[in-house]
TrEMBL record:
GO terms under biological process: coenzyme A biosynthetic process
Listed name of the protein: DNA/pantothenate metabolism flavoprotein C-terminal
Annotated organism of origin: Penicillium alfredii
InterPro entries in the record: CoaB-like_sf
GO molecular function: catalytic activity
Region (Disordered): 337-381
Length: 407
């Protein structure tokens, strides 16, 4: 009898098959100990704690991994959101893809914001006559850097930010499951904000090649790895007989739907779960986000298009208004290389052409009013709109849970 695929099993069965197939990440015990202490401290302070997931996940092609499948996410959404959650008084567990952007340091990292460009060498004081002047922050960045530095140090000194890295999709799953269970003592004070771009497909351990997949055929006595059929192996472009070219064919299984298990099993009772839905086709976004909310019965799906994600998102909720767009007003949109501004509004317009009622853009009006008040034309990050709205929803949920009449 053929073994059922994970997609055909109940979420609980798929969970146990999935987690039994992989060894837990080596860092998991250490991360659990750090998270336990962090959560205990904030339970005691009756502080809200948000688990922010951030960045992409990799799907290894070999157990001793040389190659893997990855995705585009740099972790901007996660790292930026974490800063605004801290500003709102939350403690943040930041579960992120290793080497993706981090809260605060994101302002001065990677090649777009290389920290060296913010620095200068000041002249040495006269008395020393040396050419070793102190290293300083350039005048034009003093104000912004002081602000970022103060916020960073405040978060650090008060133990408000816990950074936990992962790399592969299975590491992410193990970490998410453990953290959600550890967060149970927080009850309604726990919030899950799942911004990581998690792979939908993976190679099960049982079918994975142990060693580096070979790009040319090996003599029979050296070919021990049967996970990849020799005929499937791509052997390069320089074949003498092009018709004989081979390809590497990768057969991926769907990753089990972890959101079911998070909502129904791992997460604390009364906690709030927010997931993200990413699409590239504007006509699908609202439909897919709604379907996800119905399927997993959680509290909020934040929908975004790859091309407009820095300027607009849609909140899909089980309660009215059900669909709500948050947009950075035109004058305050920061330029983005990958963004396509012409597509702003398209996903909402598509939905309206279905005959459904249009939604007033209250938030945009509010943000425009703010622009007029401040008289500034600086760009704003869309997370300045997302996080306060989300905090309001979380507060309402906490209010309901804590003032529920006991029968
Ligand atoms: C998102 O949709 C995030 O907003 C982005 C942020 C990944 C687009 P960046 O890192 O991008 O700032 O460049 N995250 C969730 C994407 C995702 O994998 N969602 C799953 C889905 O769409 C559901 S959990 O099926």
């Amino acid at each position: 009898m053929a073994t059922p695929s994970l997609g055909d099993m109940s979420p609980a069965d798929a969970e146990s098959v999935y987690f039994n197939e992989y060894p837990p990440p080596k860092a998991l015990p250490k991360h659990e100990a750090l998270a336990r202490a962090f959560i205990d401290r904030h339970v005691e302070a009756n502080r809200r704690v948000v688990l922010v997931t951030s960045g992409g996940t990799t799907v290894p092609l070999e157990a001793q991994t040389v190659r893997f499948i990855d995705n585009f996410s740099a972790g901007t959404r996660g790292a930026t959101s974490a800063e605004y959650f801290l500003q709102e008084g939350y403690a943040v567990i930041f579960l992120h893809r290793q080497y993706s952007l981090l809260p605060y340091s994101r302002h001065y990292s990677h090649s777009t914001n290389c920290f060296l460009d913010f620095m200068d060498e000041a002249p040495a004081s006269d008395s020393t006559q040396s050419d070793h002047g102190p290293i300083v922050v350039r005048d034009e960045y003093q104000h912004q850097m002081r602000d970022v530095l103060r916020k960073y140090r405040y978060a650090k000194q008060n133990n408000l930010l816990l950074l936990l890295p992962f790399t592969t999709v299975s590491e992410y799953m193990f970490e998410l499951r453990s953290l959600a269970k550890l967060m149970r003592p927080l009850g309604p004070n726990a919030l899950f904000y799942l911004a990581a771009a998690v792979s939908d497909f993976f190679i099960p351990r049982s079918r994975m090649a142990e060693h580096k997949i070979q790009s040319s055929e090996l003599p029979a006595h050296l070919d021990k790895d049967s996970a990849v059929e020799p005929d499937d192996i791509y052997t390069g472009e320089n074949e003498e007989q092009p018709s004989q070219r081979k390809k590497l064919v990768i057969n991926l299984d769907p990753v089990p739907k972890f959101l079911h298990r998070l909502v129904d099993g791992w997460a604390p009772d009364g906690s709030m779960v927010v997931s993200f839905k990413l699409e590239t086709d504007p006509s699908l976004l609202v439909y897919k986000a709604r379907t996800a909310l119905q399927r997993y019965s959680h509290h909020l799906v934040i929908g975004n298009l790859l091309s407009t994600r820095k300027w607009e998102v849609v909140f899909i909720t089980p309660d009215p208004p059900h669909e709500r767009w948050l947009r950075v007003p035109k004058a305050r949109r920061s330029k983005s290389i990958s963004g396509v501004e012409d597509q702003v509004g398209l996903a909402e317009a598509k939905k309206k052409s279905d005959g459904s009622a249009p939604t007033p853009e209250k938030t945009e009006e509010k943000a425009q009013a703010a622009t007029r008040q401040e008289g500034s034309s600086d760009g704003i990050e869309i997370e300045t709109l997302i996080i306060p709205e989300l905090v309001k929803l979380h507060s309402t949920m906490i209010e309901k849970k804590t003032h529920k009449p006991t029968s």
